[in-house]
Amino acid sequence: MKCDMSRASLIDFFYGELDEGDRSRVELHTQACPACQAVLQELQEATGVLRLGSEEAPRENLTFVANDAGNLGNYARGWWGRLGRARLLLAFATAFAIIVLCLSLARVKASYDADGFVLTFGEPVASEESPQARTRVSGWQLTRSEFEQQRRSDFFEIQEMFRESEARQLRSQQIILEGFARDLDSQRRQDMMWVGRGLQSFSHTSQVEIDRTQLALQELMLVTNAQGNQIRAIQFSKQED
Amino acid sequence: MNDSDLVNRFVAGDVAAFNTLVRRWEKTIYNFILRYLSDREAAQEGCQKTFIRAYQNLHRLRDTDRLSTWLHQIAVNICKDDMRSRSRRKSVSLDQLLAQSDHTFDPATHDHGSNPEECAAANRVNALLNAALQEIPKLQRAVVIMKEYQGLKFSEIAATLAISENTAKSRMYYGLKALRKVFEKWEIDKESLEI
Ligand SMILES: [Zn+2]
User: ipTM of this predicted complex?
Assistant: First the structure.
């Protein structure tokens, strides 16, 4: 008879995780199916041994104390990790300090007016009262087209960075996928092994079957030959008469 | 008080509630890792790491009824890290393992009362079973341990390992079949092990 019982259904049946309808359907099938009975027997044997195991208590017990517990984990993360929530604040403060320092060192002035975007490095404007002072400032002025060019190249740079981060992400996804493929592969290999073993035992039993059939055939032939001889003998004797 | 209440109390700032959760779950998690890695040191360390990670992230647990699944999920990840960092894990022969288990029995750590002989026998059985579990692929091992020892439902196992329920059941099937082969090879059965 043909058995189309799925592994999942058998496992569910074994662990009593089927609803009433499915349970009685599987039960009815397994009562008549030697293959399923053999599998259930195997599951029974394996879990029978497994269930002899007992739990151990851990040697040391953990206790968390209000502040120390956090630190316990933080030590693994180094000094930066140990700072905890202060990290964000520290990062902002440092970034702000660096920006202020740079600006004050470079004495940068930025403005955007009818002449275009103007970035001024170097000496500060001499005094507020002399409007001409601005033209005398040694510095670097960007025209609108230069500004546009700058903006475009910035844009390309950002795009490049974006592409890079995408590539990085792809690589890490690939690593995960490769791991997944390896796992799948080992599962597949395991499956193939079982199929192979199944085939081996099948071919073994079929060889036995063939041998037995051949023997039976030989016996049958002997009997037929004997009967043939008898018939011939009878025919011969009839001709004699 | 149930897990969910304790989680909420901890998130509200009550560290004692977390310690109650640790008392409740550390043995379960310790034994999970012990069976998964068959190494007491690693189990002790992994158990600690699991609860430290839980302490740091518990406020992110949305579904507080899923604490058990969530803790197992952390433990599995920690086991994976452990296996990766010690990929060339020193291999211990079964004989060594058994010899080790004879020397390390400690009545305090067992549920078998204070009879040292029973204790040593239980240790032997556990060491043998853990060694057998190492013989099957780790994907199947995790499912077998979770089902047979951790009392998780297939839906919970599937959620913990981020796989489908059918995959979990299929791994269970192959895992048990493979284990039976190992037991057969080592000539172990229920009768020969029973104390
Ligand atoms: Zn069947």
Answer: 0.85
